[in-house]
Amino acid sequence: MKRKVYVIVLAVLLTILSACGNSAIQSTTKNEGGTAKNDGTIKIGALLPKSGVYASLGKNLEMGMKLYFESIGWKVAGKDIELIVEDTEADPQVGLRKARKLIDQDQVDLLTGTVSTAVAYAIRDEVDKKKMPFLVSHAGGNDLTRSKRSDYIWRSSFSSWQIGYSLGQWAYDHIGKTVYIAAADYAFGREVAAAFKEAYTAAGGKVVGEVYPPLGNNDYSSYLTTIKNANADAVYAFFAGSDAVKFVQQYEQFGLKKEKKLIGSGWLVSEDVRKQQGNAGVGTIASIFWDYHLDTKENKAFIAAFEKKYNARPTIEALEGYDAAKIIAEALETVGGDASDPDKVVEAISNVQFVSPRGPIQFDKETHHIIQNMYIIETNLVNGQAENKVIEVIEKVKDPGQ
Amino acid sequence: MDIIAAQLVNGVSYGMLLFVITCGLSLVFGILGVLNLAHGSLYMIGAYVAYTLTTQLFENFWLALLIAPLIVAVLSLIIELILLRPTYHLGHLSQVLLTFGLAYVIHDVTSIIWGSDVLSIPLPSFLSETLHFFHQEFPAYRLFVIVAGVVLASCLWFVQEKTRWGAMIRAGLSDKEMISALGVNIKLVFTVVFLVGGYLAGIGGVIASPILGLYPSMEFQTLILALVVLVVGGLGSIAGTFVASLVVGIVETFGRFLVPELSLFLVFALMAVILISKPNGLLGKQVIKH
Prior knowledge:
The complex is a heterodimer of chains A (about 400) and B (about 290).
Chain A: H1 2-20, E1 41-48, H2 55-71, E2 75-76, E3 79-87, H3 92-105, E4 110-113, H4 117-129, E5 134-136, E6 153-155, H5 160-174, E7 178-183, H6 187-203, E8 206-211, H7 221-228, E9 234-238, H8 241-253, E10 261-265, H9 271-274, E11 285-288, H10 297-310, H11 316-334, H12 342-351, E12 353-356, E13 359-364, E14 369-382, E15 385-397
Parallel strand pairs in A: 1-3, 1-4, 4-5, 5-6, 7-8, 7-9, 9-10, 10-11
Antiparallel strand pairs in A: 2-3, 11-14, 12-13, 13-14, 14-15
Helix pairs in contact in A: 2-11, 3-4, 5-6, 11-12
Chain B: H1 2-32, H2 39-57, H3 61-84, H4 92-114, E1 130-133, E2 136-139, H5 140-162, H6 164-174, H7 176-181, H8 186-212, H9 218-233, H10 238-258, H11 263-277
Antiparallel strand pairs in B: 1-2
């Protein structure tokens, strides 16, 4: 009997360890060998999760990048572009190993990617030491462009501050004077919540309670009962992926929707979860830097191209991949396809600006962080389907960088 | 007081959800002595098959609840006959490794078939209503889960304690050689039990997915929960699993209510305390001596 208990405990540990690391399956490398540097091609290494909880985000980033590179015929300044995608498994250890592999073995000219902020932090020193230009295409942790800022790291996606802060004043003016905050308990969730709180309290609002359920939480019933009995005008929530589906659905099921307006970050009702939420998300107000229904000619062209190629709606990660690819291509064009000097490459990246499907974008040379519009969106019912609508634009939001 | 009562209902409903998820694992482990680490994967297949049925073929949750577990049961029959049967004489560790490896294979296969997007199963309309009591609102589906848990537990108890099949199973459990000598095909009994375990995993998948959702790696999250309940309840005892599900469900719910920061840790702390004070679990009994 003792032995059996021992086996079970061992198994439990094994399972937990493997689940914590999201290390579903060891991936094999796509490009073996090829260590010799070929001057005819430009190599771009993309660190994206292809397994684990963030797999679908990684997939969409890759689809977006490929869409853009395809539109320029996989060529920039007369050279071929080669994209090498490595699976980080959203695990910092694995991410660092794969980054080293891309830099040392594949000798890539540029790095991009990482969905997980933890992975971005893990490879930060390696990138800095080896002077490898690294364009962050998703990971939004504040410190990446603050205390962990590096000359070689630039971010084209967003920061948690931009997401949270942008809704604070608006929520005070239009929603109510008291909120309850519920956010997933990990660095990004806490940063978004803190940024919202900063703006909301500065505007004069009051946060009556906060709760941080673990990431990947199963059941929100207990939290929702507590929130329901609290005296707040609205609930500010940060959840993404399967958490967002569960939270928004259960928010309605437990009868909170009728009493307290649900507001939060755009991931609460983003393209990848809204359909699965049914009508539960209708009425939600959120802040985000791109939306499918953004009415600009750049966005319409992007959506048409994406839907033609993949026969599916683009997600915000697909947009991020598309923009990152464009920024890289434009920077390489500026240096005439010569990526040998990393300082020139990052200089070229810093000067890139164009009108993206998400609106006009440019880099802040102080913080290395993108300056972009933020949109307040509302989820409505359109022909029986939940769709988002942009109700206000907050222009040129700039991360304070401290 | 209303809020305490409301949280208690939440806890019981979460506990019953855990029971529905865990009972198949507990049954197979209690009778076959096989710790099926692919249980979460069978659960996941049940959920995904139910998703395909309800979205592609017909919009009927009940029909999916009927069919999806049967498909999972057939799959577990194949697993038992081809993979597990040759390993029974090799001891626990080889089965643990085998089923764990199988879990990874199934993980890959499901993400190839169903992709990596988050999915959810639409509910029959009357179950998506809300009910009022204790001055609070409850989703009708949560109450359905409580009923389903109690019904499943009663059925399992009845079969195990009151029927000829249950008697054979219990006999085979304590002395394999003797029951074979009495003319019972113990191999067949094992196969049937594993098949029923798979069926229960499928039921768990269909019932839990409207609450827990469908997404890659859901099976490993489920497996952790199921193993915690299994260890707390006592190995091989359906009654133990039932009690443990309730205890874990209520402890976790009140943990989230009172000390949200510790909620994740509390359940594992509970498991540790029980393992130290009662190594066989709450209602564990001495089973299968080799």
